[in-house]
Design the sequence.
C-alpha cells in the first residue's frame, strides 16, 4: 500500500473514535467521514506496519445509514464524528460495540441475553426523560483565536490538529452559548484583548467555558486566561448581561447569569483549566439538579454534561443496586457525590471514596446542601481506603451489601478489584464509560465469584461513539 495512492474500499465497521474501518489486501484502513456499508474511493494519507489511514475522495455507493449532517460544520470540526449517520444507526453501532467487547474481551457467551435496554434520546426531547440528541450538553469549552481578518473568534479544533475552525454555535450545547461567545468576542475586539498563542505561550484569552443549569436556568461564564488579571472586567460583565437579555427575549427558556469567573492557566499545556479560579461577579458556583438531588457546580467541578440522561442512568444503577433501606453501600470513584447521594435515598448508609480532594469537598458540600446525613466521604485511593477501614480492621461498620464503581476510562485498578472480591458484597453495580475496560474487569470479577446478571446501555454523548454501560453482578 502506497501513500497518496487511491484505492477502492468498502467500510465494514467503525472505531471508538468514529472512523470507518475497511480493508485493502488484508490491511485495516481507517477513514474519517465514512459509514458502514459505504463503497468509496480513498486516498492513503498515512501507512503504518499493520494499518493505514485514508481520506475520503469519492463516495461511489453510499451506506443506507447515511444522512445529511444537521451541523454545517460537521465535516471540518473535530467534535461530533457521527453527524453523517442516522441516530437509529448510531444506537445500533453503540450496542454492537458493547456486546462485542463483552463477548470478545470479556469471554461472555451470548451477552445479548443479559441486555435490558439501549436507552437513547430523540430529536425533539419531547418527554421529560427522553432528552434531545441535540442541545443536551450543559457544559461547553470554546478555544479562542483570530480569523484571517484579525477578528476574535471561537470554535473547535479540526480533528487531530490545533487548527481552530470558527464556529458560533455548537448544536450539542445550550443555545445560549451563541450569545455568550458573541458577547465575549465583541468585548475582546472592542478593548483589544490579546488572544493566546500556544506556539509562543503569549496572549491573554485562552478559552471560554460555560455551564448551564438545565433545571434552574443558572449560567456560569468562565474565561480561562494566561495572566493574573482581566482588564475591563466591568465592561465584560455588562456585555454579558446585555447578551442574556437578548437571549431571554428571543429564546425558549429563561437564563440567569449567576456567576462570572476567571481561571488562571499560565502553563504551556493542552490542559484547559489551571488550578486557581477567581470570582469576578456573582457567585463562584451555580446550582442544578439530577432528579431531586441538587448539586453545587463550580468551574472546576466534575459534573455530568448530560443531566437528563444521567438521571436515567443513575435510576437504572439504583434499580440494579436493589436497595430496600437496610443496606450499606460503597461507592468507589465517587467524584462530587453524584451517584452516592442518589443511592443515599434508599440505602441505610453510603460510603464514597475519591482520590481527588477537591471532589471530596464538593461531595460533602452537596450532601449538606440536600440535608443528607447518611453519606460519608473519604479521600484517597479506593483500594487503600477500603482496605484500611474494612479488611485490616475487619470493622463490621464498613461491611457493605452493595458496591458501586464508576471508574475513569482506564477501568478499575487491579488491587481494587481484588479488594471488592474479598469484601464479598451481595451485589455489584459497574458503571462504565469504556466497554473495553469494563469487559476486561468483568473477567477478573467473574473469576472471583461474581456472575453477570443484567446489562443496560445508555447514550450519554450522542453524535459520537462514546457510550455508557451499567451492569449488575451478583455473588455466586
Sequence:
Amino acid at each position: 500500500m502506497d501513500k497518496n495512492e487511491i484505492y477502492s474500499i468498502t467500510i465494514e465497521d467503525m472505531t471508538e473514535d468514529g472512523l470507518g474501518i475497511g480493508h485493502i489486501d488484508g490491511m485495516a484502513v481507517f477513514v474519517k467521514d465514512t459509514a458502514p456499508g459505504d463503497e468509496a474511493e480513498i486516498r492513503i494519507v498515512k501507512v503504518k506496519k499493520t494499518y493505514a489511514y485514508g481520506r475520503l475522495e469519492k463516495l461511489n455507493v453510499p451506506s443506507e445509514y447515511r444522512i445529511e449532517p444537521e451541523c454545517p460544520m460537521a465535516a471540518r470540526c473535530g467534535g461530533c464524528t457521527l453527524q453523517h449517520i442516522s441516530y437509529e444507526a448510531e444506537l445500533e453501532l453503540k450496542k454492537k460495540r458493547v456486546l462485542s467487547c463483552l463477548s470478545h474481551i470479556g469471554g461472555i457467551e451470548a451477552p445479548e441475553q443479559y441486555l435490558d435496554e439501549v436507552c437513547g434520546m430523540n430529536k425533539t426531547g419531547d418527554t421529560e426523560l427522553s432528552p434531545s440528541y441535540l442541545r443536551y450538553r450543559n457544559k461547553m469549552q470554546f478555544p479562542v483565536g483570530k480569523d484571517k481578518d484579525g477578528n476574535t473568534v471561537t470554535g473547535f479544533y479540526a480533528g487531530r490538529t490545533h487548527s481552530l475552525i470558527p464556529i458560533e454555535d455548537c448544536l450539542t450545547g445550550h443555545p445560549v452559548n451563541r450569545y455568550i461567545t458573541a458577547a465575549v468576542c465583541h468585548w475582546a475586539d472592542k478593548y483589544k484583548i490579546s488572544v493566546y498563542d500556544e506556539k509562543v505561550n503569549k496572549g491573554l484569552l485562552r478559552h471560554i467555558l460555560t455551564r448551564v443549569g438545565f433545571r434552574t436556568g443558572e449560567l456560569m461564564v468562565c474565561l480561562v486566561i494566561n495572566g493574573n488579571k482581566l482588564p475591563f472586567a466591568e465592561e465584560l460583565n455588562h456585555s454579558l448581561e446585555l447578551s442574556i437579555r437578548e437571549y431571554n427575549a428571543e429564546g425558549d427558556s429563561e437564563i440567569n447569569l449567576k456567576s462570572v469567573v476567571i481561571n488562571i492557566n499560565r502553563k504551556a499545556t493542552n490542559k484547559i483549566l489551571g488550578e486557581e479560579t477567581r470570582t469576578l461577579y456573582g457567585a463562584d458556583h451555580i446550582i442544578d439538579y439530577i432528579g431531586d438531588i441538587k448539586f453545587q457546580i463550580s468551574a472546576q467541578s466534575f459534573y455530568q454534561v448530560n443531566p437528563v440522561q444521567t438521571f436515567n442512568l443513575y435510576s437504572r444503577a439504583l434499580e440494579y443496586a436493589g436497595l430496600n433501606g437496610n443496606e450499606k453501600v460503597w461507592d468507589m470513584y465517587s467524584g462530587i457525590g453524584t451517584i452516592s447521594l442518589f443511592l443515599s435515598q434508599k440505602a441505610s448508609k453510603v460510603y464514597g471514596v475519591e482520590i481527588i480532594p477537591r471532589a471530596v469537598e464538593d461531595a460533602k458540600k452537596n450532601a449538606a446542601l440536600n440535608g443528607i446525613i447518611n453519606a460519608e466521604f473519604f479521600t484517597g485511593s479506593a483500594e487503600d481506603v477500603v482496605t484500611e477501614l474494612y479488611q485490616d480492621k475487619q470493622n463490621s461498620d464498613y461491611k457493605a451489601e452493595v458496591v458501586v464503581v464508576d471508574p475513569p476510562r482506564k477501568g478499575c485498578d487491579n488491587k481494587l478489584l481484588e479488594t471488592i472480591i474479598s469484601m464479598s458484597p451481595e451485589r455489584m453495580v459497574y458503571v462504565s464509560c469504556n466497554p473495553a475496560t469494563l469487559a476486561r474487569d468483568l473477567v477478573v470479577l467473574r473469576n472471583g465469584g461474581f456472575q453477570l446478571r443484567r446489562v443496560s446501555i445508555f447514550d450519554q454523548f450522542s453524535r459520537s461513539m462514546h457510550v455508557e454501560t451499567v451492569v449488575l453482578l451478583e455473588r455466586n
